[in-house]
Amino acid sequence: MGVLHGLDLLIAVEELKTLQSKRVRAVDTQDWELYRSCHADDFTSFTLAEPTQGIDLVIEGMKETLRGVRSAHHVMLPEFSFETKTRATGIWVLHDRLWWNQDGEEHWFEGWGHYNDGYELRNGQWLFTSRRITRSRIEHSPGSRLTR
Questions:
Q1: CA-CA distance, 107 to 98, in Å (whole number)?
Q2: Which helix (H) or strand (E) is 114 found in, with range?
């Protein structure tokens, strides 16, 4: 089991940063084709009460949750750990804000915390294989339909 070193490590880190940037842009623009291209088919999301297995199910859930929602996700300060040359984990600082109209009123949600992501190099491309969000703080408008 080899671990990446030197230039190979730097290249992999930059590829993972680019992958996360694409994913965040895809969420905020609701570009579900781009979002799908960042994830493995067998991606597992641990962001809701129950894990969701499979990127197609995850996207369907996101479409429903984000219908009519504008969002801004900021991720920064990644910490990567390479288990092998083709498997890694990453922790990212997260700040997100969402806005929408609900019952004729503008509502909002703001959260802080961390993304805990899993990645695999498949067919020469890094892909997300899992995600868990840990929240350190959440604020939202009174009566908001989004609370986590």
A1: 8
A2: strand 105-122
For residue 104, the domain's CATH number is 3.10.450.50
Structural domain for 16, as ranges: 6-140
Mean pLDDT in consecutive groups of 10 residues from the start of the chain, 148 residues: 85 98 98 98 87 94 94 98 97 97 94 97 98 95 82
Report field, pTM of the whole predicted structure over 0.85: yes
CA 98 from centre of chain:
15
Number of structural domains in the chain? 1
- Sign of the CA dihedral with 65 first, then 78, 31, and 61 last: negative
Cα 22 to Cα 56, 58, 89, distances in angstroms? 18, 17, 17
